[in-house]
Design goal:
- By secondary structure, this protein is an alpha/beta fold.
- It contains 14 helices and 12 strands.
- It has 2 domains: about 35-135, Enolase-like, N-terminal domain (Enolase-like, domain 1); about 140-375, TIM Barrel.
- The strands form 2 sheets. Strands 4, 5, 6, 7, 8, 9, 10, 11 and 12 form a 9-stranded mixed sheet that branches.
- Helix 3 (about 75-90) crosses helix 5 (about 115-135).
- The chain starts with a helix and ends in a 23-residue tail after the last helix.
Length: about 425
């Protein structure tokens, strides 16, 4: 029998199911645009802090939502999103690599906080559209799920070690966390002698360990308040008896060689990356050996696909990913899709969305942590919609991070 005859008629029925041509439920994609971007909008709202949301609309009535990072000059981020609009209108929103490269390449100069935040929020919205158009959750377009739920942690607070321990116990009782984070340094540490700061860090870590028991993972976030590697190493030594999961932002990000020097000195895992942008900066960090765990921010580093690329570079260095996630419920949703589809994800920073005003930003019920984990949505796109009507009740407020000064009046670090 000729091959052509074998593949026709009744002979086709004898082939394995996967070899037979399956009927198409909808027309095949031909490469011609079936969707066109008609509008790109930015919304600045305040629900405890400012949030920047991006909405991309199309001529077929499908729209997508994204969240851009807010770090202070939020009106500038809004203006940048609106400036990108003329670059995007008329384009197919599903050509995400093309549109990302258009925004990144034609900006020409490597973007900083404002440009990369705007680009990230727009990129999220494009993926939301792509998922809705395909009828699939975004993670299914990125390789599918490699886990069934997302482990997360929350930060405990307290001025004294005792207050810190009590805060952690309350959070674990309410949400079932298997990991807790806190600042190792006490309030006002910029104006304290450094020996006092280091000693207090050890006391806080010991109190936290005693409060939560031997098995809860502890994370410590120095918030890049330390300049010198040797002082960061002293902090790490003070925290070592608590057996941390990681010490985050032990140093500033400007000098990656210094971060690598610190990592070689200490015997606890070093995590960093929330202030870095795109795969290019993370490649530099990992090449010098500057981190055991990377912490890109999905609303700042370039979006979900860029964060997938960062994770792939990290995976090749045997480095895990614990995303920075201090923003709103949409940022958490985008991170859930990232975590669901990324093998070297380890844990996600989380802020509860079960109370107003945060929960009011999303239509319907938000995803809430249970037994220390977040559920993975199964609806198309991100799986949730933002509530534009709620935005009207949440006007933005000008803000900046609190200034902290050293004892002699010199500006400190925050």
């Amino acid at each position: 029998m000729k091959r052509r005859e074998f593949l026709s008629g009744t002979a086709m029925a004898g082939l394995p199911l996967q070899a037979a041509a399956m009927p198409q439920a909808s027309p095949r994609y031909t490469g011609k645009p079936e969707l066109k971007i008609t509008d790109v909008q930015a919304f600045l709202v305040n629900a405890g802090r400012n949030y920047v949301y991006v909405k991309v609309s199309t001529d077929q009535g499908i729209h997508g939502w994204g969240e851009a990072y807010s770090a202070g000059p939020d009106e500038a981020t809004v203006a940048t999103v609106r400036d990108f609009k003329s670059w995007l209108v008329g384009k197919d929103p599903r050509n995400i690599e093309y549109l990302w490269a258009t925004m990144y390449n034609f900006t020409r100069f490597p973007g900083g906080l404002v440009v990369n935040a705007a680009l990230s929020g727009i990129e999220h919205a494009l993926w939301d559209i792509a998922g809705k158009a395909a009828g699939l959750p975004v993670y299914m377009l990125l390789g599918g799920k490699c886990r069934e739920k997302i482990r997360c942690y929350q930060s405990a607070g307290g001025r004294t070690p005792e207050q810190l321990g009590e805060s952690a116990k309350r959070l674990i009782a309410k949400y079932g966390y298997t990991a807790i984070k806190c600042a190792p340094h006490p309030m006002g540490s910029q104006a304290m002698p450094y020996n006092a700061v280091t000693r207090a860090a050890g006391q806080r870590a010991e109190a936290l360990r005693q409060a939560v028991g031997p098995d809860v993972d502890l994370c410590f976030d120095a918030h890049a308040t330390i300049w010198e590697p040797y002082r960061a190493a002293e902090m790490a030594e003070a925290l070592k008896p608590a057996r941390p999961l990681f010490l985050e932002e032990a140093l500033r990000h400007e000098n990656m060689d210094a971060m690598a020097e610190l990592r070689r000195r200490v015997q606890i895992p070093i995590a960093t990356g929330e202030e870095l942008y795109t795969k290019f900066q993370f490649q530099q960090l990992l090449t010098v050996g500057g981190a055991d765990i990377v912490q890109p921010d999905i609303c700042l580093a370039g979006g979900i696909l860029e964060q997938k690329k960062i994770a792939a570079i990290a995976e090749s260095h045997y480095v895990m990913v614990a995303p920075h996630n201090p923003l709103g419920p949409l940022a958490t949703l985008v991170n859930i899709h990232f975590a669901a589809s990324t093998p070297n994800f380890i844990i996600l920073e989380y802020h509860p969305d079960d109370e107003s005003p945060r929960k009011d930003l999303i239509k319907g019920d938000t995803i809430v942590v249970k037994d220390g984990y977040l559920a993975i949505p199964d609806k198309p796109g991100w799986g949730y919609e933002m509530d534009e009507e709620a935005f009207k009740r949440m006007p933005p407020r000008p803000w900046h991070r609190a200034f902290e000064f050293q004892r002699d009046g010199a500006p400190g670090f925050i």
